[in-house]
Specification:
The protein is an all-alpha fold. The protein is built from eleven helices and no strands. The protein is 87% helix and 0% strand.
């Protein structure tokens, strides 16, 4: 006779499973933290491979050698990313002081209207660079470990680019190796899980890049029409921050409205707010369902919790990687659930 009722034993079993999963996850996170200088380039390379995969496959279909196609893809991404970074940095350098000054003026205006309650905003604007460095310090301080930030970033970027080349060229070999290492009878399942996880990351990267570009162009045009100073720099900020779902759009939109408030007055600020809200409505009700609904299906609450968890683990980098990795996890879970349902139907007499 069992000492515990059946529901209690089932509950205890589920608790053991959850604790086991949590323990394995914690150990995995700790290992990634210890091996971060190798893990970060791999994760960035996976995101880059997911984004560049269609271009590489198009070149292969055009009868180009696989190595040449991968090399040309990497050269193309260096040219495009380098050009984009130059444009963004140039825009922010040209308008950065103006944006910060506008934010400081807006904070002072709020402080005048709300008294002591606005002092914190003034401090935030005056020390925005220090606050940004402090916010990102948690993510980068352990990475650099005695090496300059610029040198470490360049090394990570070069390694990630080399990994993108090998991931593009040798993806078929990776699948063969996965099938070889899979335990007996699970090769098809392992391949299906790997493919679905990569498809989720690929869909997120392509969709997010397209949405970020549309958001940045629309908001930049709107700010230029309203003659808001630093419109190009603010548009660049919108594009970069769009890779952090929901939170990035909120922060970049708030900065644009504050700049408009400081330099163009309350009425123009309301128009700027209208432009930002219109673009966000377009994104939420048209772009997101049309572009990403087929590949990345996660509730906004799950996305926000994922971003928060990623920030607590790895700072800004964790915020950027949290959503695509979670999308890959949900893809794997979906494959397992489908196989389990099929097996249950087969076993049912």
């Amino acid at each position: 006779m069992s000492l515990l009722p059946d529901p209690v034993r089932r509950f205890a079993a589920w608790c053991v499973v959850l604790l086991l999963i949590a323990g394995v996850g914690w150990v995995g996170i700790r290992l990634c933290g210890e091996l971060r200088t190798a893990v970060v380039p791999v994760l960035l390379a996976l995101l880059g491979t997911a984004l560049l995969g269609p271009l590489y496959r198009w070149m292969v279909r055009a009868k180009l050698n696989a190595s040449l196609a991968a090399a040309l893809t990497c050269v193309a991404v260096v040219a495009v990313v380098g050009g984009a970074v130059y444009i963004v940095v140039a825009a922010l350098v040209d308008t950065g002081d103006q944006i910060v000054t506008s934010l400081r003026d807006a904070a002072k205006a709020v402080a005048r209207h709300f008294g002591a309650a606005g002092t914190g905003l003034d401090d935030l604007a005056a020390n925005s660079r220090k606050l940004l460095e402090k916010f990102g310090g948690t993510a980068v301080s352990n990475v650099i470990s005695g090496v300059s930030i610029v040198g470490e970033s360049i090394a990570i970027a070069v390694l990630a680019l080399l990994l993108v080349f090998f991931f593009l060229r040798d993806s078929h070999r990776a699948l063969k190796a996965l099938r070889t290492l899979a335990p007996g009878g699970t090769a098809d399942l392992m391949e299906a899980m790997a493919r679905r996880a990569f498809e989720a990351i690929e869909g997120f990267m392509r969709g997010t890049t397209l949405i970020a570009l549309i958001d940045a162009v629309c908001i930049t045009i709107g700010l230029l029409i309203l003659r808001v100073p630093g419109a190009v720099g603010l548009g660049a900020l919108v594009f970069v921050s769009a890779y952090i779902p929901y939170l990035g759009a909120f922060l970049s939109g708030a900065v644009a409205v504050l700049v408009a408030l400081a330099d163009r007055g309350f009425v123009i600020a309301l128009w700027a707010l209208g432009v930002v809200l219109a673009v966000q409505v377009l994104e939420g009700h048209v772009l997101q369902p049309a572009i990403q609904s087929r590949t990345v299906q996660m509730h906004p609450a799950v996305v926000m919790l994922t971003i928060t968890a990623g920030a607590s683990v790895a700072g800004i980098l964790g915020m950027l990687l949290a959503v695509p990795l979670t999308a890959a996890f949900f893809g794997i879970v979906g494959v397992l659930r489908t196989r389990y349902d099929e097996q249950s139907q087969t076993d049912t007499p």
